[in-house]
Design brief:
It contains 9 helices and 12 strands. By secondary structure, it is α/β, with parallel strands linked by helices. It folds into 2 domains: about 120 residues, Rossmann fold, CATH 3.40.50; about 120 residues, Rossmann fold (3-Layer(aba) Sandwich), CATH 3.40.50. Helix 8 links the parallel strand 10 and strand 11.
């Protein structure tokens, strides 16, 4: 059995190539599960111990991690769990984009410290898990947040003191023109983004920012020492086929 840690567009692309025979997919949320209809999907966040039990109970032979580049705890736990259970772990890691514009920060603390010093409107596109960092910020009223239109995300926004007029609740992917429309409508001066890669809509976001004179503020991608990784889906398929033939 191949366990695909999914919930991303990358994982759905990989599953389309592999088919659904002999695989089980896990997502951290029900939302992620809904995007994978018709597949053997388990929707629950797991710590390292629960991952080990999952591997044993599902008779997993190979872990294919296609989780989000910023889901650092998921990947680290999966690496350790697969090692402890004596099975192979492979990672699909999106290639990062390269561009010269913008300012980068390696932590949310440093990033939000910088945002507090800014004048003008800010669009934050970091997802709902980081909303708590903005609670009580001195210039919170000038910050807009683009999040998924799901109950859990909206509840986190409410707890962080974010008003409905500051929330842009919509599901991607977003085109360059759509991003430009948002920047212009909300008179955005800065856009806060992750180094998610082209699959995550980062390219369209940055290109739109360049056209509109919006400055990117980037949360750097965390670094993990993966046992094996690639950003090429063809290489993932080849690796899985080699494993199945062995």
């Amino acid at each position: 059995m191949i366990w695909i840690i999914g919930g991303t567009k990358d994982s759905r692309n990989i599953i389309d190539r592999l088919g659904n025979s002999g695989i089980i997919v896990s997502t951290a949320t029900e939302y992620g599960k809904k995007l994978l209809k018709g597949l053997n999907v388990v929707s629950e966040p797991m710590d390292q111990g629960e991952m080990r039990e999952f591997i044993r109970s599902k008779r997993v032979d190979l872990v294919l991690d296609a989780s989000h580049p910023y889901a650092i705890n998921v990947s680290q736990n999966a690496i350790e769990a697969s090692k402890a259970e004596g099975i192979d772990y492979i990672r699909f890691e999106r290639e990062m984009l390269t561009y010269e514009e913008g300012v980068k920060f390696s932590s949310m603390y440093e990033l939000t410290k910088y945002l507090k010093s800014l004048k003008g409107n800010i669009l934050v596109t970091l997802g709902s898990n980081n909303l708590n960092y903005f609670k009580g910020m001195c210039n919170l009223e000038n910050i807009y947040f683009r999040i998924l239109p799901v109950k859990a995300s909206l509840e986190k926004a409410e707890k962080a003191g974010i008003l409905p007029k500051q929330i842009i609740a919509v599901q991607g992917p977003f085109s360059k023109d759509f991003n430009k429309a948002i920047y212009k409508n909300y008179e955005i001066n800065y856009v806060v983004t992750k180094e998610s890669g082209a699959t995550g809509g980062e390219l369209e976001k940055i290109e739109a920012a360049a056209d509109c004179g919006v400055k990117p503020v980037i949360l750097s991608r965390p670094e993990i020492n993966y046992p094996w990784k690639t950003g090429d889906i063809d290489q993932i398929i080849k690796k899985v086929m080699e494993y199945e033939e062995a």
